Amino acid sequence: MDGKIYRIAEAKKMLGVSERSIFRYIHDGKLRATKIGYWRISNADLNRFIADQTNIRSRKSK
């Protein structure tokens, strides 16, 4: 298991979205994050979010 932890700025670059979008995903419960001084997102949670988004897109295209 990769224990990498990302900050919001890193996650937004990886996902290609705005910081506001990241916070919206967190607020909506789509992306798990923990506030430790700043918001932090684990590698596992980021990968889970990416997989969920991929599944949503593939279901819509059917």
UniProtKB/TrEMBL annotation:
NCBIfam families in alphabetical order: excise
GO molecular function, one term: DNA binding
InterPro entries, alphabetized: DNA-bd_dom_put_sf, HTH_17, SinI_DNA-bd
Domain Helix-turn-helix: 6-53
Record protein name field: Helix-turn-helix domain-containing protein
Organism expressing this protein natively: Candidatus Kaiserbacteria bacterium GWA2_50_9
